[in-house]
Amino acid sequence: MGPDAGGASHIARLAVDEAMPLDCGRSLGPIDIAYTTHGRMNADRSNAVLICHALTGDQHVVGTHPVTGRAGWWETLVGPGRPIDTDRMFVICANILGGCMGSTGPASINPQTGTVWGTDFPLVTIADMVRAQKLLIDHLGIDRLFAVVGGSMGGMQVLQWAVSYPDRVFAAVPIATAARHSAQNIAFHEVGRQAIIADPQWHQGRYADHDTRPTKGLAVARMTAHITYLSEMALHTKFGRRLQDRQRMSYGFEADFQVESYLRHQGISFVDRFDANSYLYITRAMDYFDIAADHGGVLANAFRGSRVRFCLISFSSDWLFPTVESRTIARAINAVAGNVSFTEIDTDRGHDAFLLDEPVFARIVSGFMDGAAAHAGLVRP
Amino acid sequence: MGPDAGGASHIARLAVDEAMPLDCGRSLGPIDIAYTTHGRMNADRSNAVLICHALTGDQHVVGTHPVTGRAGWWETLVGPGRPIDTDRMFVICANILGGCMGSTGPASINPQTGTVWGTDFPLVTIADMVRAQKLLIDHLGIDRLFAVVGGSMGGMQVLQWAVSYPDRVFAAVPIATAARHSAQNIAFHEVGRQAIIADPQWHQGRYADHDTRPTKGLAVARMTAHITYLSEMALHTKFGRRLQDRQRMSYGFEADFQVESYLRHQGISFVDRFDANSYLYITRAMDYFDIAADHGGVLANAFRGSRVRFCLISFSSDWLFPTVESRTIARAINAVAGNVSFTEIDTDRGHDAFLLDEPVFARIVSGFMDGAAAHAGLVRP
After folding, report:
1. Nearest to A92 by CA among A131, A44, A143, A53
2. Is B351 among the catalytic positions?
3. Cα Rg of chain A (Å, integer)
4. Which residues does substrate bind (chains A, B) (predicted)?
5. What is the distance, to the nearest Å, from the Cα of residue A76 to the centroid of all Cα atoms in its chain?
6. CATH number of B8-181+290-375
7. What region, left, alpha or beta, does residue B62 occupy, with left being phi > 0 and alpha being psi -120 to 50 degrees?
8. CB distance A33 to A94 below 8 Å
């Protein structure tokens, strides 16, 4: 199926003739990048929108997920008549390099040994993920993406796209993200990694050789992270101190409170669809992310001369990627006379708000996409 | 050594003739309560101050800790000439029931089986801990405590003292605490418990029988909790994104960032001094804590008719026990015309601020203690 078909899954084999260099100094190739497309590419290939997914997301941005059977993770924002309108745009969403839904990652086979990479897989950075996406965009014959859009770690990729390939991006929508990972966020990631590494089923990352998986450690990692995705108010509103299936406390260690039961479910269901080593690699990539550090310590330098149109969005109760992080980016772009709009959405749903039905958020993305399309001279197909 | 000696460690055997009833419906006795005393009791036994420790604290409030060799955990606040002045007051600090520093807890021997209790130990609540402290105060022949003082879970005990035994307390100083544990705090505790339970060395709580300990799980639990004790700003100021002993990233899973190294150290050093089952029991006691629920859902009812003088203190950057929790308590006491002062200390050091050298905090405690002593007719010995 060609790239102009709608709602389809593909795998592209890239970096075949020449291995792709990585920030760590090693190189990798050939690599597989699994992606989905939605809508139709127009004749001059000017209507492509790349969606970048978050830490535990994947390419199934719309449509039924093949593993979980659930709806796509961004159907609130992407689809026919939605803010990112697949009647008008050609939407591409690729599983990141290092991921575990079809793209090359630590669960893939190392062609040189014929066994699973495990922790022999080279460490990849956000910039490496974007390099792989760039190879995909080249492969699809797209000179310039109309837009790159993503939240959380997806937003990091959006920023990296704009910084690495400013001439290949017309508009960028980094949502609920930051130009560098904070000490507190590194700390939470480190706890998750240590939970995985402490699981004896991890086997120094070589669990595939032992035909097992560190599911308990990965579940604990997911539980920790999940708390950071919600606001205190969201947890309070959703659960408070309500008891689970009981009139009174058990006076034991069962899940007495609904919030405990919910967290345990988040942990257990996650391990069915995610690879523990991928979790280690991807969290590490986020921790390393620091755009200013790559530009002499001055964030504004990263955007100097850029003609990319930015639409930054944050959520008021997001304490993982608080508004101040987006404001820092907006100021840096303004400092070099870039083109940037910035909105904080008032919500008590925390970081997860970017994945939820938030009407004001949807309206802002819709308005920005329409305005940018007009500026780009994109006519309805 | 008698209770009027200064700077001494004791163990009291309590509930000997009659087992102590617990909230869970079971009873426990005899119980050991390990405690330290500092300063001298006056002739009419009216100058006793009970210090209540937090989740991972113990009775070594001042003086060298016998296991870690470090200074007492509250030497900033307690000692000769300090706000809680041992030249003037007789300070008592007891290891909580359920603890692991000499008081009866899950690591103690079950007299009925001759083996370690483990998870056969009954679940204890904050009110049970306070019941045991009350037996100790009876044992010491003290009719009324001049003051009960504590931070975090220690503050919960202070509140419980004032509610359970209002006639036995003249003044109460609940610091950085809450009248009920929030959904977010329960969630963080649940992650810590799951980390311990996921450790195969936990052996369903019977690790003593296997001559092992779930140190990896306990270390992960401690790391998670430790993040919540600091503010985002404190982590940023203390560590930022600074690298550990390196000029550049390792592109691996070593502790590249100082914050990772710090957290790992916190986890590893904690397991040397703490019992994993105690951690399960004590976190559960905090989760269950809800004073309003015990009083028809109305917090103010808990304080109706109380003559206890309260001094509530919170810290502006504490997100584990935010200021709103203390304000809720102050309002409840005010609603029944109680005697309460409330101060929020401006600091960026997070929850841990109550353990640190914070001059304004020390001055407020000092002023309150002096004022209360005057009202109580306490003359310098």
Report:
1. A53
2. yes
3. 21
4. 222, 352
5. 16
6. 3.40.50.1820
7. beta
8. yes
Is B152 catalytic? The answer is yes
Instruction: Find out whether the peptide bond into A30 is cis, omega within 30 degrees of 0.
Output: yes
Find where tokens 């951690």 sit.
B279
Best residue of A251, A325, A328 to probe chain B, by most B CBs closer than 10 Å: A251
What is the distance in angstroms between the Cα of B308 and the nearest Cα belonging to chain A? 28
pLDDT for the residue numbered A4 = 35
Q: How far apart are CA B323 and CA B343, in angstroms?
A: 9
Closest chain B residue by Cα to residue A288:
B249
Which tokens go with A304?
């100097």
- Exposure string for B111-144, b = 16+ CB within 10 A, e = fewer: eeeeebbbbebbbbbbbbbbbbbbbbbeebebee
E-only strand ranges, A80-207: 84-85, 90-94, 109-110, 115-116, 145-151, 169-175
CATH class, B185-284 region? mainly alpha
The pLDDT profile of chain A, 381 residues, written as one tens digit per residue, is: 333 334 899 999 999 999 999 999 999 999 999 999 999 999 999 999 999 999 999 999 999 998 889 999 999 999 999 999 999 999 999 999 999 999 999 999 999 999 999 999 999 999 999 999 999 999 999 999 999 999 999 999 999 999 999 999 999 999 999 999 999 999 999 999 999 999 999 999 999 999 999 999 999 999 999 999 999 999 999 999 999 876 678 899 999 999 999 999 999 999 999 999 999 999 999 999 999 999 999 999 999 999 999 999 999 999 999 999 999 999 999 999 999 999 999 999 999 999 999 999 999 999 999 999 999 999 765
Cβ–Cβ < 8 Å for B160, B23: no
Domain ranges of chain A: 8-180+287-375, 185-284
Strands A90-94 and A20-21: unpaired
Q: Does A240 lie at the interface with B, CB-CB under 8 angstroms?
A: yes
Q: Is-contact B180 B220, C-beta < 8 A? A: no
Strand A8-14 relative to strand A20-21, pairing: unpaired
Q: What is the pLDDT of residues B367-378, one digit of tens each?
A: 999 999 999 999
ipTM of this complex prediction, to 2 decimal places = 0.93
CATH code of the domain occupying A8-180+287-375 = 3.40.50.1820
Catalytic annotation on A318? yes
